[in-house]
Amino acid sequence: MDCCTDKSNKEKKMGKTIWIIGIIALLAVGGFFLMGNRSNGYVALVSAGEVDFYKSGSCGCCGIHASYLQRQGDLDVKITEMQSISGIKQKYGIPSELESCHTAIIGGYVVEGHMPLEVIDKLLIEKPDIKGIALPGMPLGSPGMPGAKKGEWIIYQLNNDGTYEEWMRY
Predict the structure, then answer these.
(1) Which helix (H) or strand (E) holds 120?
(2) Residue 57 confidence (pLDDT)
(3) What band does 56 get if pLDDT is binned at 50, 70 and 90?
(4) For strand 154-158 and strand 109-112, is the pairing parallel, antiparallel, or unpaired?
(5) DSSP-based three-state secondary structure for 23
(6) pLDDT, tens digit, for every residue of 78-116?
(7) Strand, helix or coil at 52?
(8) What pLDDT is stored for residue 51 in this prediction?
C-alpha cells in the first residue's frame, strides 16, 4: 500500500506542477498580447511624438532627466537650453510654488520637473482636461536626481483656469 500511496502522491504533485506551469505560460502569453505596441511597458509614450524640453544650460540634472526620457520612454526629446527659463514657465502658466528646474511639453501637456515616466504615461492615457502636471522642486530619488526616494511625491495638476490641485501621489 505504501508504494501505491507514494505513486499517487507523486502523480498529484506532477499534476499540480503541470497545472502551475500551464497557468504561468498562459499569463506570459496573455501578457505578451496585452502589451501590444508598448515601449518599455509605457503605452501612451510611444505616440507622444516629439518632446520639447526647456532647461538652463548650466543645469546637469535636467540633462540627466532628458536622457531618462529618451532612453526609458523611447521619446524624441528636443532640448532647448536657455539663459533663463522663467519666460517658459510664465508662458505655460506654471505657478512659482510648483516650479522645478526644467519644463517639458509632452503630448500637448506641460510636464514640470523630474516626472517619472509612469506618471507621464498615466497622464497621456487618461487625457484629463488640464494644462499639465507638476512635481515641484528637485526631489531626491526622482529621475535625474541622486539619492533614494523618501516618501510619496505629490503630483499637482495644472488646471486650465490657472489654479492647481493635487492630482496623485507617487
Answers:
(1) helix 117-126
(2) 83
(3) confident
(4) unpaired
(5) helix
(6) 999 999 999 999 999 999 999 999 999 999 999 999 999
(7) strand
(8) 94
Domain residue extents for the chain? 1-36, 45-169
Q: What is the pTM of this model?
A: 0.74
> What residues contact 51, with CB distance under 8 A and at least 6 apart?
69, 75, 76, 77, 78, 104, 105, 106
Instruction: Map grid coordinates 526647456 to a residue.
Output: 54
CB 112 within 8 A of CB 135: yes
DSSP SS3 for 112: strand
Residue at grid coordinates 507622444: 48
Q: What is the DSSP letter of 153?
A: P
- Give me the mean pLDDT over the 15-43 stretch: 49
| 20-35 mean pLDDT | 45
The one-letter amino acid code at 47 reads: S
> CATH: 2.40.160.30, 3.90.1440.10, 1.10.1240.10, 3.40.30.10. Which one for 45-169?
3.40.30.10
Rounded Cα–Cα distance for residues 147 and 44 (Å): 28
Q: What is the pLDDT of residue 128?
A: 97
Q: Which amino acid is at 6?
A: D
Place of cell 532628458: 66
